Amino acid sequence: MDEAFVANRVLARVPANNRARLRARLEPVTLKFRQVLYEPGRTIRHVYFPVDCLISLLTSVDKRRSLEVGMVGNEGMAGMPFILGVGKSGARAIVQGSGTALRMSSAPFLEEFNRNPSLQDALYRYTFALMTQISQTAACNRFHETEARLARWLLMTRDRVGGPEFFLTQEFLSHMLGLRREAVTQAASTLKRQGVIEYSRGRLRIVNEKRLESSSCMCYRAVQAIFRRAQS
Fold this sequence. Notes:
- This protein is α+β, with helices and mostly antiparallel strands.
- The protein has two domains: 2-118, Jelly Rolls; 145-216, Arc Repressor Mutant, subunit A.
- It is 47% helix and 22% strand.
- The protein has helices at 2-7, 9-12, 20-24, 106-115, 117-143, 146-161, 170-177, 181-193, 209-215, 219-231; strands at 27-31, 36-38, 46-50, 54-60, 66-72, 92-97, 99-105, 165-167, 197-200, 203-206.
- The strands form three sheets. A four-stranded antiparallel β-sheet has the order 2-6-4-5. Strands 1-7-3 form a three-stranded antiparallel β-sheet. Strands 8-10-9 form a three-stranded antiparallel β-sheet.
- It is globular and about 50 Å long.
């Protein structure tokens, strides 16, 4: 539990002398690919601190289409509306990368949040960074080319799962980026021909991280800088 606790960067900001009670109320859980954690308008019953998994925050465009507006990895927490006094989710939260998280029921979490100033500070900093990520993602989806958006998304995913390889289908990715599957296929094929990525049967691997960063738009670096500032 100790290793998982400090692997999440929000929890790691809590001083050691304030961790015992908080740690005792957290439980490790395994989250599976495509598992739905929250639905819009539904009550938030648990908060999640990812350790090595990845959670996507989606907003619905219509009955058939949705768009990723944010992602949560080991830099943050899923269930942020709860600390702002809103007990219901405003977005659909779905597991994009399977792995481990630390989970706490909403009522005891609120008790810990209200009595632990260091946890408050860490989560307020994360709130600022997440809001920046969401607004930058909206601008990116509106103004940047498909290949640059794909590169940005792959880099952000890599940072949050802690490695260059992850399970991913082009159909799922088209929903994340709000693009037609054909557009995603074309952009991924370009990166593959350039020797930047490899993918087969839903398994994608980044093989040239520097070239991928060169292919990305400036949104990746902008969001990365904000998260560094929030965690300093």
